[in-house]
């Protein structure tokens, strides 16, 4: 039988994940049964939500069990199919987890259309991260012509899309990123109107200067000291889609403080709309429109994106750990070493 390599959760992290929390295994692949497909993984998507799956705290999804394969979405090639919807050679998207090969039920495998863009976009700008930005902005943020939209992690797969959607709506896009290289990319390549470096000692005043008319939409995916700087600038009736809080995923920092009183006061006094969401809740009503609207814009180059690709499954844990502290630059992907 063929051998697959995979990464499993060896132990639950206490604070930031370490390499000791991951374990590599080799397993024999069984033959695909009726209704199953055999897949060769081409690309693995690494995303911040995976940190939550490593914890057993109550959340919107079940945690990865200790000893279980790390969860993740992949771009794959069908090797063998026992289902009429798939044929050998098909390129598909599937939730195989962190592995090189898998035999899975066909109901977690999906065809995709990148409109001529590279297949990697199926798990990036045209996949879950892109749809997170699209659905959060369309349903909750609802930017209008002339408004100011701010997003953190603006060089990443979600933030970069948020700003570009804001521009398409006629709004002013202000990005927050870490370091000159990322800030330059956000301004010069993505076309944001302004960008602020959250590492600056003058971050809060820099953000205020970049938003002279306040903030109408803040797309929250970071939390922490970024939220502290954003909150005083939110205008009356501002909208805040919340899709992530990466600053808190590894637990509170030593300098953390209770942000609830100031946040609740602002919600009341300025009639703020703060709405957490998981992109899957909007798939039924909005995913078709997302593919139809955004796919051609990506393929034509009107919507731009950046990918950060590392080679080999063995590099996945270290790359994932680095992503949680902002070491990646763009959508983080693992390219499997044995791709032809």
From TrEMBL:
<dbReference type="InterPro" id="IPR020843">
    <property type="entry name" value="ER"/>
</dbReference>
<keyword id="KW-0560">Oxidoreductase</keyword>
<dbReference type="InterPro" id="IPR045010">
    <property type="entry name" value="MDR_fam"/>
</dbReference>
<dbReference type="InterPro" id="IPR036291">
    <property type="entry name" value="NAD(P)-bd_dom_sf"/>
</dbReference>
<dbReference type="Pfam" id="PF16884">
    <property type="entry name" value="ADH_N_2"/>
</dbReference>
<protein>
    <submittedName>
        <fullName>NADPH-dependent curcumin reductase</fullName>
        <ecNumber>1.3.1.-</ecNumber>
    </submittedName>
</protein>
<dbReference type="InterPro" id="IPR013149">
    <property type="entry name" value="ADH-like_C"/>
</dbReference>
<dbReference type="Pfam" id="PF00107">
    <property type="entry name" value="ADH_zinc_N"/>
</dbReference>
<feature type="domain" description="Enoyl reductase (ER)">
    <location>
        <begin position="17"/>
        <end position="334"/>
    </location>
</feature>
<dbReference type="GO" id="GO:0016628">
    <property type="term" value="F:oxidoreductase activity, acting on the CH-CH group of donors, NAD or NADP as acceptor"/>
</dbReference>
<dbReference type="InterPro" id="IPR011032">
    <property type="entry name" value="GroES-like_sf"/>
</dbReference>
<dbReference type="InterPro" id="IPR041694">
    <property type="entry name" value="ADH_N_2"/>
</dbReference>
């Amino acid at each position: 039988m063929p051998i697959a390599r995979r990464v499993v959760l060896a132990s639950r992290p206490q604070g930031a994940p370490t390499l000791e929390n991951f374990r590599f295994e080799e397993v024999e692949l069984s033959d695909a049964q009726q209704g199953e497909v055999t897949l060769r993984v081409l690309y693995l998507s690494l995303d911040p939500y995976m940190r939550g799956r490593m914890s057993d705290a109550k959340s919107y999804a079940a945690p990865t069990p200790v000893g279980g394969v790390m969860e993740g979405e992949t771009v794959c090639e069908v090797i063998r199919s026992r289902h009429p919807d798939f044929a050998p050679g098909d390129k598909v998207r599937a939730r195989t987890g962190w592995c090189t090969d898998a035999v899975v039920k066909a109901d977690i495998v999906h065809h995709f259309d990148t409109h001529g863009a590279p297949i990697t976009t199926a798990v990036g700008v045209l996949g879950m991260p892109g749809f997170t930005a699209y659905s959060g902005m369309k349903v909750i943020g609802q930017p209008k012509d002339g408004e100011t939209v701010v997003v953190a992690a603006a060089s990443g797969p979600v933030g970069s899309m948020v700003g570009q959607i804001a521009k398409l709506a006629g709004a002013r896009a202000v990005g927050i990123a870490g370091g000159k290289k990322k800030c330059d990319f956000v301004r010069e390549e993505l076309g944001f109107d302004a960008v602020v470096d959250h590492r600056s000692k003058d971050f809060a005043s820099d953000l205020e200067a970049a938003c002279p008319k306040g903030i109408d939409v803040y797309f929250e995916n970071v939390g922490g000291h970024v939220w502290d700087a954003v909150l005083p600038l939110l205008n009356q009736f501002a909208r805040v889609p919340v899709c992530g809080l990466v600053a808190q995923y590894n637990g509170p920092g030593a300098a953390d403080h209770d942000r609830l009183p100031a946040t609740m006061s602002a919600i009341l006094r300025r009639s703020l709309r703060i709405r957490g969401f998981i992109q899957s809740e909007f798939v039924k009503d909005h995913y078709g429109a997302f593919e139809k609207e955004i796919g051609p814009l990506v393929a034509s180059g009107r919507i731009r994106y950046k990918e950060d690709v590392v080679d080999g499954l063995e590099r996945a844990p270290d790359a994932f750990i680095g992503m949680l502290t902002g070491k990646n630059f763009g959508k983080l992907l693992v390219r499997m070493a044995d791709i032809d």
